[in-house]
Specification:
This protein is 22% helix and 24% strand. The chain has a single domain (18-91), classed as Ribosomal Protein L15, Chain: K, domain 2, CATH 3.100.10.10. The strands form two sheets. The protein has a three-stranded parallel sheet with strand order 1-3-5. Strands 2-4-6 form a three-stranded parallel sheet. The protein has helices at residues 3-6, 39-45, 76-84, and strands at 20-24, 36-37, 54-58, 68-71, 73-74, 88-91. It has 92 residues and is an alpha/beta fold. The protein is elongated, with a radius of gyration of 19 Å.
Length: 92
């Protein structure tokens, strides 16, 4: 029997998987208060590559001003950090 048939087959690669672009709360600290932070603004600031990326907000770091953040997904810790400063996270 050939070697390729004797070795175990492992894993699966989903060809339809859509990747996430990770943004941390500390990356949002550069924006002024009451700014609406969305994919277009993040792309212009150079935080993400394309405005069409799917964005997930994670809670690493702090922010000192209230922001309005519009992303596709956000962790509960990130929502709490933004809300503690008087801002809000909108999941679109």
């Amino acid at each position: 029997m050939p070697l390729i048939r004797r070795l175990p087959k492992r894993g699966f690669t989903n060809i339809f998987k859509k990747p996430w672009t990770i943004v941390n709360v500390r990356d949002l600290a550069r924006f002024p208060a009451e700014t609406v932070v969305d994919a277009e603004l993040l792309a212009r600031a150079g935080i993400i590559k394309k405005a069409t990326d799917r964005i997930k907000l994670l809670g690493q770091g702090t922010v000192s001003v209230p922001l309005i953040v519009k992303v596709q997904a956000a962790s509960t810790q990130a929502k709490e950090i933004i809300a503690a400063q008087g801002g809000k996270v909108e999941v679109i």
